[in-house]
Amino acid sequence: MSTRMNKTDRPFVVCHMLTSLDGKIDGEFFAAPETAPAQAEYGRLRGFYSCQATLYGTTTMQGSYSEGLAPAVLPPADGTVPRSDYVNADGLALGNFIVSMDPQGVLGWNSNIIEKKNRPKAHVIEALTEQVSSEYLSYLRQFGISYLFAGKDRLDCALLLQKLKKLFSIERLMIAGGGVANWSLLQDGLIDELSLVIAPVADGSTTAVSIFEKAGFLPPHGPVAFTLKEARPFEGNGLWLRYETAEP
Fold this sequence. Notes:
Elements: E1 12-19, H1 36-49, E2 53-56, H2 58-64, H3 89-94, E3 97-101, E4 113-114, E5 122-128, H4 134-142, E6 146-149, H5 157-168, E7 172-175, H6 179-187, E8 193-198, E9 226-234, E10 238-245
Parallel strand pairs: 1-7, 1-8, 2-3, 2-7, 3-5, 5-6
Antiparallel strand pairs: 4-5, 8-10, 9-10
């Protein structure tokens, strides 16, 4: 289980999300024309934070970044694959990263580089638990994908952040969904700032994902309070809210 750690041992972490008025981070509101100015502002503010890495949960990675899921049956591991952290030197030199929370090792890949429109190239770092098979480690090495072990049965987010700073010199990290990934870091006291870019649109869905969502595999945790740092309207009737996590 994650433990509280000194902030100097890990990167500064901001949770940066585009949301509807009712706190949804996916769903039909994205297609509304009134959401477009907020989407543009969300992209601009990514640059404001100057983060070296962006962290995503498994579902977000599968839907937007990875090549779906890895093959159900992988080739046998190539020799004895060390069950230890692997850092691709060329990826490290790139200096920009996408960190994929993939505790069971299920995501599919065809490259260790992700390129998105209007964003710099990013090297993929897989965050794994000890449950991952040696065959999957061999699969990742085939594509030069770096990986870090952080936890036995579930991801230890504090350990992951510590390794990201130590092995990749990451000083500033953005987490951008999904809701379970966001809550995982929040309940462990690992989010320093919350940045909400709010579109002037209500979604109303009962199935769309919210900014923070608990999951059955996470330890029980009560509500988490924030302190307002800044509120700024922007063109198109949107609002940017910045919060700091309140001291316990």
